[in-house]
Amino acid sequence: MFEDLSQNIQEAFRKLRGRGKLNDEDITKALKDVRMALLSADVNYKIVRDFEKAVKARALGTEILSNLTPAQSVIKIVDEELAKLMGGKAAKLNISSRPPTIILMVGLQGSGKTTSAGKLALLMKRQGKRPALVAADIYRPAAIKQLQVVGKQADVPVFTEDIKDAVQIAKDSIKFADKHARDVLIIDTAGRLQIDERLMQELKDIKATVKPHEILLVVDSMIGQEAVNVAETFHNALGVDGIVLTKLDGDARGGAALSIKAATGCPIKFVGMGEKLEALEIFHPDRMASRILGMGDVLSLIEKAQSTIDAKTAEKMVKKIKADEFTLQDFLEQLQQVKKLGSLNDLLGMVPGLSGLKKKLTGVDLDLDGKEVKHMEAIILSMTPKERADTSIIDAKRRKRIAMGSGTQVADVNKLLKQFEEMRKMMRRFKNSQAQQQTSKKVKGKKGKIKKGKNTKPKMPMLPNLGGLLGQLGGKFPFKK
């Protein structure tokens, strides 16, 4: 996500670091590189020009802070202006005080509208709501069936009627919501391959009939500047309340995300970050700006961990690591926990200082649904419980059986066992290092040098050992001694 843009902007500021004082020429040159990076990302020229003017006015003004270097101050200004460009802060859904809240999903065909409706239903359900999906796309073949499939996956009811009147279907769905105590209705409407009068009139009729509290436009981020044009047309015709940007995980440029709010005034409310039903996230402009600048996004990582990682499992894992009882069975469970968090590619972008690490991981499969990870799972699952608990008993005969059972080679089994042992050694070093730090703190505490204070940071369940996992995946983890 945003790999090209992030790399180009970070390169522009890398040249500023290490300088004690910046002059006007240094700032102008850095901003020229930023301007070229934004234009390459397919951001509208007028938006880029206004952005550059705003940053330059602040950077050449009196905003250089005493506790930051000049370069850090400029980067801070760019971070704030990038966030402002994308909307400033997360925009919330308009939830009605009198249910049901009606959400109208609109967009062109192929933008991911039906899937996004299902994703949103699951997200609302996890927030304690009782959503229902409404199949109002009466034109596209299999549209109703597709919505029923995603509804079943999300365990959310789907309202359908065997009539060819989308307006009437939308109207009747309100009675369905009242009857079944559903407090959120998500209406999936028809799309077209291009914007036409018939499409817009039908959407206007649905809007006039059901009076939705929220109109969400679903746009494919991969179409770049065209996404902005689509958003402007829909907004002028319907009055769109928010944008759902799909396929953002595959967008290396980011032009749509950076342009759409400034061009239309419509905030991006959600972003699609993958094909899985859980892969819909609330859009946080400030966090996205930090990720683009390589500063990570710890808050999103914490929230993702809290929503996906089982606290009891994590606590059990901590105890096993401390007791040096971490087994291949534990590693399998750990891998399955990490898979719930999404791709390692995205996770690395959320950790400050690690956004550029994926470049160094040559030969490492960062796709947690990829071939290499599936082979690892197959190898472990082909072992007996005793073998997973104690790898020392796995002799040549057992390795051959495991390879045959998993459809892999003996060399693959050997590689997994070797790297698992290396990971255990790394955990022991980490455990010993922590023990030494704790001892040091206790000594300092007795001398009165350390004061206890309340920790106000959000508590995160233990994340599975990403360092060990990366080493396991490719054996080329650069920090391994």
Summarize the topology.
Elements (H helix, E strand, L loop, with lengths): L2 H12 L9 H17 L4 H15 L10 H16 L15 E7 L5 H14 L4 E6 L6 H12 L3 E2 L6 H14 L4 E6 L7 H14 L3 E7 L4 H14 L3 E5 L8 H10 L3 E5 L7 E3 L2 H8 L5 H11 L2 H12 L5 H13 L3 H7 L6 H4 L10 H11 L3 H5 L6 H11 L3 H37 L19 H9 L7
Parallel strand pairs: 1-4, 1-5, 2-3, 2-4, 5-6, 6-7
Antiparallel strand pairs: 7-8
Helix pairs in contact: 1-2, 2-3, 3-4, 4-11, 5-6, 7-8, 9-10, 17-19, 19-20, 20-21
Descriptive overview:
By secondary structure, this protein is α/β, with parallel strands linked by helices. 55% of the residues lie in helices and 9% in strands. An eight-stranded mixed sheet has the order 3-2-4-1-5-6-7-8, sandwiched between helices. Helix 7 runs parallel beside helix 8. The longest helix is centred in the C-terminal third of the chain and has 37 residues. The radius of gyration is 26 Å and the shape is globular. It starts with a helix and ends in a 7-residue tail after the last helix. The C terminus is likely disordered.
Order of secondary-structure elements? HHHHEHEHEHEHEHEHEEHHHHHHHHHHH
User: How many helical stretches?
Assistant: 21
From the helix content, strand content and strand pairing, which structural class follows?
A: alpha/beta
Tell me the Rg in angstroms: 26 Å
Are there runs of 5+ residues with pLDDT below 50, and where? 360-365, 449-481
Anisotropy-based shape: globular
* Helix percent band: 55-70%
Strand content: 5-15%
Total beta-strand segments: 8
Biggest β-sheet strands, sense, barrel:
8 strands, mixed
Q: End-to-end span in angstroms?
A: 30 Å
